[in-house]
Amino acid sequence: MMEAAFTQNTINSVMHQLRPYNQPVLDATQAAARAITIAVFLCIGIANYAVFGTKLQPDVLLNYSGHGLRRLLPRRPALALAVAVKLSFLVNGLFTLPAYLYPYQHNLWAALPSQSPEHRMNDQRSFAATNIGSLAACTLVAVLVPSIWKPLKLLGGTAVGCMAFVFPGAIALSTCCNRSHAERTAGDRALWVLGWVLLGVGLLQAVASIASQFI
């Protein structure tokens, strides 16, 4: 749930819509976005499990095929529903893609040495070339990899696990270490424990995810 909340919404692409903004407005917006994200993920997961049970695939779109829906519906309604679900997924991806590409490029250029995100993203040729290259690479992976579940599981257990657990844990520990032992309060000690717990969970998840690819 933490991973879903931290990776499925970003405030950078909608900052201009919140002006004039202040910290309480930003906090409320992020809290609402995370609550909605968690609620949607829970509804999707519970509803699909209720319908397909133990036959639920890791990639749920595989269940929404004419063959997969035949045990629930007659042939024509099953085929119509399968087509509608696939088209809805395609349209949703096309509409949400710009919201992902902007923060993706900003983070990409910020992570590379001697690069200015603002300069690169204001250069239309560079912005377009990076987007096209990234989409082409994703398309190639989608064609060559037989199951999308393995790369997603690896990504979720490593990069996303770091964002959701390791980095917050490191920040919590850094906050505590900046104070002397005499200045630390009970809240600081609780934060110190929480930091180590988050670090441990994140690292264990990463190790388990990597190991599962070879077992």
Helix content: over 70%
Sheet with the most strands, sense and barrel status = none
| Strand residue content | under 5%
Counting H and I runs of at least 4 residues, what is the number of helices? 8
The rough form would be described as: globular
Number of domains: 3
Q: What letter string, H or E per element, gives the SSE order?
A: HHHHHHHH
Overall structural class, as computed from helix and strand content, comes to: mainly alpha
Q: What do the pLDDT scores average to?
A: 80
Would you give an account of this structure?
With 215 residues, the chain is mostly helical. The protein has three domains: 1-56, no CATH class; 58-144, no CATH class; 146-215. 72% of the residues lie in helices and 0% in strands. The chain has helices at 2-7, 23-52, 75-111, 117-122, 124-144, 149-157, 159-177, 186-212. The two termini are 25 Å apart. The relative contact order is 0.07. The model is unreliable at 1-5 (pLDDT under 50). Residues 5-210 form the Amino acid transporter transmembrane domain. Belongs to the amino acid/polyamine transporter 2 family. Pfam families: Aa_trans. It is a multi-pass membrane protein. This is Sodium-coupled neutral amino acid transporter 7.
